[in-house]
Design a protein that fits this description.
- With 173 residues, this protein is mostly helical.
- It has a single domain, classed as Four Helix Bundle (Hemerythrin (Met), subunit A) (Up-down Bundle).
- The protein has seven helices and two strands.
- The chain has helices at 3-23, 28-32, 42-64, 75-89, 98-103, 110-130, 151-172, and strands spanning 141-143, 147-149.
- It has a two-stranded antiparallel ribbon.
- Helix 1 runs antiparallel to helix 6, helix 1 (3-23) runs parallel beside helix 7 and helix 3 (42-64) packs parallel to helix 6.
- The termini are far apart.
Length: 173
């Protein structure tokens, strides 16, 4: 695996483990019920994050089939990524993109979520291990708002997405 990609992947895995350790011993009711009317429960937040990664991985796998025809990321994609990072770090609320809403399953029980997230991350790791270094900068992901990003930038989005939703989970706790 490319070293720059591997470092972001390892960071993602540590982040996932830390997040799951926050919720692993919660009573079922606290996990599935929101402490605030009209807000997502912890199970809904985690299902959303998992679904985002799962759909994104499916998309990049599909786009990687024609990777030689795709351009490399450059300054424009770097600027888009920074705007995306800023948007995830400021405490504003956004509606999930339509494609996410339409494809998000009902909130998952924690054991199922942990299992599925492990599978998605294993598939991501395998995908990254098989990716040639010359393809790392190919823009094979299309974020619904930020546009085209390369695979490393996509994983940075995954990281920022979790950072964005972590305060919601901590408020529920």
């Amino acid at each position: 695996m490319n070293t720059s990609v591997e470092s972001v992947f390892q960071e993602l895995e540590q982040q996932r483990e830390a997040l799951l350790s926050l919720v692993k011993n919660l009573p079922e009711e606290k996990y599935t019920t929101s402490a605030f009317p009209g807000k997502w429960s912890i199970s809904q937040i985690l299902t959303h994050v998992l679904t985002s990664e799962k759909l994104s991985l499916g998309y990049i796998k599909k786009k990687a089939q024609g990777i030689d025809k795709v351009k490399n990321s450059g300054l424009v994609e770097t600027l888009r990524l920074w705007l995306l990072i800023i948007s995830q770090r400021i405490p504003l609320k956004y509606k999930a993109p339509k494609v996410m809403v339409e494809n998000t399953p009902p909130a998952m029980p924690l054991p199922k979520l942990v299992e599925e997230w492990s599978i998605v991350r294993s598939e991501l790791k395998q995908f990254l291990e098989n990716m040639e270094d010359r393809h790392i900068r190919k823009v094979i992901y299309k974020h619904p708002v930020a546009g085209r990003l390369d695979v490393r930038q996509t994983m940075i989005f995954f990281r920022e997405h979790i950072i964005h939703h972590t305060p919601q989970i901590k408020r529920q706790l």
